[in-house]
Write a structure and sequence with these properties.
heterodimer; A: mainly alpha; Rna Polymerase Sigma Factor, Chain: A; 79% helix; 0% strand; B: mainly alpha
Chain lengths: 197, 186
């Protein structure tokens, strides 16, 4: 084989390789687009339940999918993509929440009155409901982090205790015990809040 | 709904109901499109973003061909040749330097540093004094006894001894021209 042929064959190999790479990349992008259309709203709700801010929740969802994009080679190895994605967005949300601690608290009551469904309620009742939800959420915030996380994730109908355990990275029995503790603590906090009123 | 709110305050179910309400919220419209768009932007590989500066596929530095010693030596030689050749071209095109015929003085920037004289003369001729046209050398003046003071010294010296200057004695002085006229008359 002459030097010229060797060079040309090398170029041809490179061209074939790039064609395969492009095809693989396109397939990955399609798979990612499918994930977005299927789970974006679920991830948004998970993010919103913790951050309670629409813009922050949307940013968290975008960041989660960007992380997925960075590790798209591992997409084929994931068994349960839904739980995997919720785990990613959960970590993103916790990071953001930790960073946001220095920021001033937003007015949760007004935000809740605007966001939460209130069909058939008058304006006064809507405000009263929002105040009630705000009190409850304030009590949730007072819970220890481990118990709070389990309680928040248990509110999602799509997640059972095994999946919650997978998201947080603990055993199922730990999830159950933490949930039990969280409920007890929550009851005490709500009683205390009611007695103060 | 009203009864629900009342019941919610009774216990733990209140907290769980609130959390469930939050967990059931709908995602905003267009969320998927926005996420897809951001992913599309992020998915563009860096090589495609910088197409103008990108290497041809066979010459990409990531291939490692630049690490070979002969290639590096050739590159160093090429750089050295370009530098030397460029210097030689510049020096050959410039004319040989000749000795300067005039000194170029830097422009005075004194005006910026202070006030200018505005063309005024340093010593204006405001006095109308007599002008000496020709200097005539007078013979050395003889010391006469009249001009001598005590102890045979001239008046000026005695005055100095008493702490007075010669002008304090008011010695009549004559203009140079008058003295010469008197001497000529003698």
């Amino acid at each position: 084989m002459s030097a010229g042929q060797a060079v040309f064959s090398g170029w041809m190999e490179i061209a074939d390789k790039t064609v395969y790479e492009e095809a693989g990349r396109a397939a990955e992008e399609e798979a990612l687009a499918a994930l977005v259309s299927q789970y974006a709203s679920t991830l948004y709700r998970v993010a919103y339940s913790v951050l309670r801010n629409a813009a922050d929740a949307e940013d968290a969802v975008q960041e989660a999918f960007l992380r997925v994009l960075r590790h798209r080679e591992t997409l084929g190895e994931v068994r349960d993509q839904r739980v995997w994605l919720i785990r990613i967005v959960w970590n993103v949300v916790l990071d953001r929440k930790r960073r946001m601690k220095t920021r001033p608290e937003t007015d949760d009551v007004a935000e809740l009155a605007r966001v939460l469904p209130a069909e058939g309620l008058s304006a006064e009742e809507r405000v009263a409901a929002a105040q009630h939800h705000a009190r409850v959420l304030a009590c949730v915030e007072q819970l220890p982090a481990k118990e709070r996380q389990v309680l928040m994730l248990s509110a999602f109908e799509e997640l059972n205790s095994v999946e919650i355990a997978s998201v947080i990275g603990i055993t199922e029995s730990s999830v159950r015990s933490r949930l039990f503790r969280a409920r007890n603590l929550m009851a005490g906090l709500l009683d205390h809040a009611r007695s103060l009123r | 709904m009203k009864t629900e709110i009342r019941d919610q305050g009774t216990g733990i179910s209140a907290a769980e109901e609130t959390l469930r309400l939050l967990a059931r919220l709908n995602a905003p419209d267009g969320l998927e499109k926005r996420v897809q768009k951001s992913l599309r932007v992020a998915a563009i590989p860096a090589a495609r973003k910088a197409r103008i500066l990108s290497w041809p596929a066979g010459l990409r530095p990531s291939g490692g061909w630049m690490q070979a010693a002969p290639v590096r030596a050739a590159a160093a030689a090429a750089i050295a040749a370009v530098v030397v050749g460029g210097g030689w071209i510049v020096s050959s095109r410039l004319p040989a330097s000749q000795p300067a015929t005039a000194l170029a003085l830097p422009a005075q920037t004194g005006a910026r540093q202070g006030f200018s004289s505005s063309g005024a003369m340093r010593t204006p001729q405001t006095l109308d004094r007599p002008v000496v046209e020709a200097i005539i050398e007078a013979p050395p003046e003889r010391i006469t006894p009249q001009t001598k003071g005590k102890a045979g010294l001239p008046v000026a010296q005695t005055a100095l001894r008493h702490g007075k200057s010669a002008s304090a004695k008011k010695i009549p002085t004559q203009p140079v021209g008058a003295n010469t006229d008197a001497a000529q008359r003698k």
